[in-house]
Amino acid sequence: xxxxxxxxxxxxxxxxxxxxxxxxxxxxxxxxxxxxxxxxxxxxxxxxxxxxxxxxxxxxxxxxxxxxxxxxxxxxxxxxxxxxxxxxxxxxxxxxxxxxxxxxxxxxxxxxxxxxxxxxxxxxxxxxxxxxxxxxxxxxxxxxxxxxxxxxxxxxxxxxxxxxxxxxxxxxxxxxxxxxxxxxxxxxxxxxxxxxxxxxxxxxxxxxxxxxxxxxxxxxxxxxxxxxxxxxxxxxxxxxxxxxxxxxxxxxxxxxxxxxxxxxxxxxxxxxxxxxxxxxxxxxxxxxxxxxxxxxxxxxxxxxxxxxxxxxxxxxxxxxxxxxxxxxxxxxxxxxxxxxxxxxxxxxxxxxxxxxxxxxxxxxxxxxxxxxxxxxxxxxxxxxxxxxxxxxxxxxxxxxxxxxxxxxxxxxxxxxxxxxxxxxxxxxxxxxxxxxxxxxxxxxxxxx
Length: 448
Fold this sequence. Notes:
about 450 residues, mainly alpha, about 75% helix, globular, 20 helices
């Protein structure tokens, strides 16, 4: 009982911290942004008014959604109808719902990260408090990204941070065994470079991700609601696999069906969940196959319902949204998964010229390229974690890369990208700490 109460207190403190991290989003909630200033929002308000608000909810469950552009999104329609009934055309009410969804998503990401870190990053985190801190950091980062607040850290150099970490981690060893520490640095300096490189790439991508109008723009409700329901559906599915309690499976199925009714993007997560169930088959046993079958059945049911209620052909809006150059979309997709490709484009563009190295950009790019070796080693050492979250990011980003970009397209993939970036940073810090404190007892290639 005492242990249970302690866990409840810890979780409550974590949730309070996450709410605090989401407080910057309240500035967007109270922003002076008239709803009808945006044409899409104005069209949605007109559609809700014409069907008498919540009284006409069934209309949106049997056909196209508010904008009449060929999408079946009854869950999003229902959530906006509730806002319309409560707040009319008062903008802060809609934005408050968006903010609450963003906060709930951050909490769900915390729970997912904690669960997977316990299983797949046990070689990095030896203590439970380290796992919780890692998961909390990821959830706070997402909370700040949702309001573009994390970009304020762009001016902080990752190299300065890792150098400070090396100094702090090695200061006790330096004071006790200065000569041995210096020898260790010479022998294992390249391994320190691997840790620093992994940290650099994780930090750089993390602080350069952000959303400027995810909360303030009402039509982004589609992505916010779908992402929130998707994250929580995966969480409840894991609870079902671990415990076998039927109510968890029912909640997971309900949430996933709601996510599909909010936005089409969660369809891409079907193979991701199937891979998860397969990876957990030894612990879940028959429940793994039930989990996979349930998700597939819900996705198939959604598709059958969508094509039964709406035309199968693309609408004019959908055709307009498709990129004219598919290859460009695929290039952006590959760069999102493997950011080093963007550096290859840089070298192909500028060519090889010794005079380039009189300029800072060339040196920055070259050093970052060499630092990517640390990313490869980190992925190799924790391939289950990176593999699954990379599949999450890639599967959810792929269909959106074929469309002209909108900010909210990348919200669901961001959960996967953040998990990758945070793990790179954690591995980099842990690897450098281990080298500094045990360098004289390690073989040079042992951890590669």
